[in-house]
Amino acid sequence: MTNCDRFYKELNSEQREAVDTLEGPVLVLAGPGTGKTQLLSVRAANIIQKKDVLAENILILTYTNAAAKTMKERLARIIGFKGYDVQVGTFHSFANSIILDSEEAANYI
Ligand SMILES: Nc1ncnc2c1ncn2[C@@H]1O[C@H](COP(=O)(O)OP(=O)(O)OP(=O)(O)O)[C@@H](O)[C@H]1O
Ligand SMILES: [Mg+2]
Questions:
Q1: How many angstroms is it from 106 CA to the middle of ligand 2?
Q2: How many structural domains is the chain composed of?
Q3: 31 in ligand 1 pocket by Cβ < 6 Å?
Q4: pTM exceeding 0.90
Q5: What tens digit of pLDDT does each residue of 2-16 get?
Q6: Packing angle, helices 13-20 and 36-50, rounded to 10
Q7: What backbone phi and psi angles, to 5 degrees, belong to 10?
Q8: From the centroid of its chain, how far is CA 106?
Q9: Ligand 2 geometric centre to CA of 52 (Å)
Q10: Taking a C-beta distance cutoff of 8 angstroms, is the pair 11, 39 a contact?
């Protein structure tokens, strides 16, 4: 049993359904503290394992820096040091990096 399997087993059936969806969008509507971050972390780990996707090719956007930090820590707990290769950041920092990388976008500032 992999570490990812262990975390998967702790999820409920709705969370597992989201984690098992390896292709396409999944909308998760859930209240505070109900396991959204956990399921997203396990889903990313599952995609990396089952689809042979490189961790650095996964992008996870959050609203707050605190949530991004939590996500990175969870990923590292589930898949080890590779978890730190996943691109995790806030919407704002991601959008800012695009603007900084793009001469065309910079013209609109
Ligand atoms: N199905 C579950 N059964 C029991 N505990 C769970 C389950 N899913 C998640 N948890 C645990 O519940 C706690 C809160 O989970 P998590 O941080 O993922 O929730 P969240 O919805 O992202 O919270 P927030 O709204 O604060 O961002 C964590 O300790 C997590 O391991
Ligand atoms: Mg959360």
A1: 32
A2: 1
A3: no
A4: yes
A5: 888 999 999 999 999
A6: 40
A7: -80, -10
A8: 28
A9: 26
A10: yes
